[in-house]
Structure formats: C-alpha cells, structure tokens
Amino acid sequence: MQSVVPTLSLILTVVTFGSGTTKSVVPKEIAADGTVVASLLAEGAQTYDCKAGSDGKLVWTFREPIATLISDGATVGRHYAGPVWENVDGSAITGKVVASVPGATPNDISWLKLSVVSTRGEGVFSKVTTVQRIDTHGGAVQGPCEATGTSLVAPYSATYVFVRERN
Known about the structure:
Elements: H1 4-19, E1 35-52, E2 58-71, E3 74-80, E4 84-87, E5 92-101, E6 111-120, E7 130-138, E8 151-164
Antiparallel strand pairs: 1-2, 1-8, 2-3, 3-4, 4-5, 5-6, 6-7, 7-8
C-alpha cells in the first residue's frame, strides 16, 4: 500500500498539470489585478539562434516561441512570435513583457507578466489586458553555441493566464 501513495500523488500532479488548472503561487512581481478570462496550457518549443553577443562571443539568442494552447485536452489556439496568442474563435492579442521572475530551475524559462499592446477580432481574447506565463517547464538553453547561424529548439510547457480589467 505504501507504494500506491507516491504513485497516486504523481498521477494527480500530472492530471492537474495537464488540465491547465494548476493553482500556483504567483510572485508579486508578475501578479495581475483583474478577472481571469482563461487559463490555458501551452505545449511547444522556444527557438534560439547562435549569434555573436555584444562582446563578440557566440551565444544562444531567443528567436521565437511556437506552442499549442490547450484547454481540457482540446486545442483552442496557438502562440507564436510577437509574442501573439491566437484563439480558434479568431481573437488574438500581442503582448509586451513588463516583468519577469526566474523559472523554478535553470532549465525552465522565466515566468512573465505581459501587457497587451494590440488586439484583433472578437472573442475570448478581445478584452484581455494582461497575460501571465507561469508553471514553466523547460524551454531554457544553457551553455555556449559553436557556429553562427545554427538553431536550437528547446521543448517547453507553461500555463498562460489571460486577465482583463475588473468592471
């Protein structure tokens, strides 16, 4: 019976994470005041290019994200360079990073708070003013790169929380 408890705990953790309903403690630096419109799981990758840094040394430089947005196991949108979040209903938003905190481990991309700078279409995202990226897993690249022009794709998952101003 003792071996069942850790297994059940792991299963519950996976199910909770997979549903996009993880109840995380959000650091005050990226907290958002408002009403949550949607909380969606993202699964995808962060793409990096090898380029010369300001000191002339080669470093991995972030290019773009590409991810599927998921709710209750169904694809409901996509996330891509801009950064843009686009819902299947045609609504889309573009954000700008206003705050960040480190991920849980060096392999995890930062948690972010983004302000919405543009919207298009009517739908789920049309009244969103803030996006939070939390519960990040993976996506970070470490170490030097060796050849200019090479790319690296780092798989990641995260929860994106979409918030609108309170009425």
